[in-house]
Fold each of these.
Amino acid sequence: MGLDINKTLPDGTSAGYWKVGHVESWTPAPSSEGFGCNLWVDGYATHAYREAGANSIMNQMYSCPYTGAKDLFQYMDLTGVSGEVTGTKRLGPDFPAGWDWRDNGVSGWMESSDDIRSGIYDWIKVCVPYFSGATDQWTVGEA
């Protein structure tokens, strides 16, 4: 599985298909978030190029703690008529129905699948602004 979304760098390099290329666990440093993983996402010109064995042309890396997914979107304070802050609004897409930070974190992916990558795509689409609006792209032979 991968994600379809077009991204273009200032130099004109463009990728339209993204696939998790590498997942690496990390252990905590003093005063850190705890155990987690780094996710490397490789960008290809198109899904067809990836299937034909082409090399990636862009790479992104994101970190997520094991104890829950990390939201990389910003939040904005909401104020009432008195000017006091009454809450916050997420500046990104709504969370899918049934979204749970623990279940959609790395520990949730590990508990629900023998392949850690199966849930990473859900997390990337919801929690990483760069991939907001991406759609799933299945590879031949994948269920």
Amino acid sequence: MNQTAHIIGNGISNAVVDIPVHFTVSCNIPTHNVPFDVTTIIDVRVLEAMQEQSVTFTQPVWCTQVVADSAVKKKVSGTFLPILESQHRKNSGHHAAEQCARMGYTHIHLWGMDSIFREDLSSQMDNLIPRPHRANMTVEWRGHWSKIGKQYATTRFYVHTINVNTLHKDYGENFWIISHEK
């Protein structure tokens, strides 16, 4: 098995994605043009946006049971695999990283996960699902990254940034930063 996986989030730094052929996971409805093998959806509002935008996936969707049930109820086409467990304040990127680590990937590249190194929580999904009163989730999101790093201590997580050379906090020795110039 190839031991490298790439996860593409929806932060603005996903603009520098440059991926050789590896297993690639996208989050929600991707706004990038990078081919991917699977996507993660944990919010039923994404299903509504898929219907509004006439989005369908030929790739499998890793999701929670709630999302899978809702997809059936709303008649959203696709293969929805309910392998993710809902956890408060955990985003699709967290779920994707954990699932890849569980599957045995030892090198996981994180693209577009800007809240790891910036205060900005904006997402390219904000255009599809407006969130005018979004809570500041950076503390919880960063806490989840720290837990993931500890739980999968032998997995290396590579955080790709644009012109940023430091992470916002110490996530553990298995988090590495790769800064790209734009």
Amino acid sequence: MVQASSCVGALRVCLPTRDGRAEVHTVATLLTALPAALGRPVLIHLGQAGNIPRARNQAQREAEAHAPDQDPVWVLWVDSDILLEADQAPAVARYVERAEVDGVGWVAHYRQADGRSVLSLEGGRHAPILAAEEAEALPDWHPIAMAGLGLAYLPMPRGYLWHADDMGEDWHLWQDTGMVARFAAGIRVRHHRLAYL
């Protein structure tokens, strides 16, 4: 975890990882450009475990420990394979502020390894995922029923237990909580998948 002189008003970033690795540019953006754009400190809560649900649980418990009187706890989820460049920090800051005013979380769009988006306008175990072109054509702040959590700012219920089975932990979150988010159309990120040779 990256310490700040004061946790009051800090943006809590949860970064789950299997092996302690993350995109260098993303971490630099989170530690320098984003605090400057927000005008408040950023605390990074690193969750490292053998699988992502455990890593998410670890990071969320850390965030909750630093926000003992908050329920829900607002968390910026950033996956370790998401590339967030410094020029996107002002957009992220605007959406963080909008979410806190509106009381609703947001998700950013990125492409999966197969080129599809990570957004769905429907809920449920077999909810259809939008094609990347469909996702990119959505209007800003459009309601999203389910999404991957590569980059998302959400009001997390205290004590939520991340879990997965034949369905990923991100899909379970939406089903378990009934949460609906908004589409942050103005944020551009890339998804870097590690390829083993």
Amino acid sequence: MYASVSHITPTIRANSGGPQSRTRNEVISSTLLGREDGPIRCPRHISLALDFGTADPVTTSKELLLLAGFTNPEALRSQLGRSIRPMICLANPALRPLIVADADPMEVLRQAFLLGLCTTVRCDPERPVLWTQASLSRRLELFDAREFYA
């Protein structure tokens, strides 16, 4: 006859990795963006930031567009979009914006055109030019990633 083994409890072993006093937190901060030397280069190409004051960014941009003789934001592509290439975008709220009320209208339109091609992380020259309050209010640094691949 066989004896019942239901009364035997299994042995459990665990290792927490060390006492709580040995744990630590470290903040590691590094970026490849902005590097112009070394084997991986992503140099800063341009900074974009517009300050419309209390005016609506979309309405103001469209008014400047019409005054400059363009029918819509996409019409800027023929004049301003020839040398645009895909780039990496980084939001930077600390950028000093161009004051639209005091600036050259074509410089405002150039920045608005580029902001319209950007999301928060990428500038895509194949993308339609989208002017929204969010896109025209972004403060972005654009980085050339042609020599970067992973």
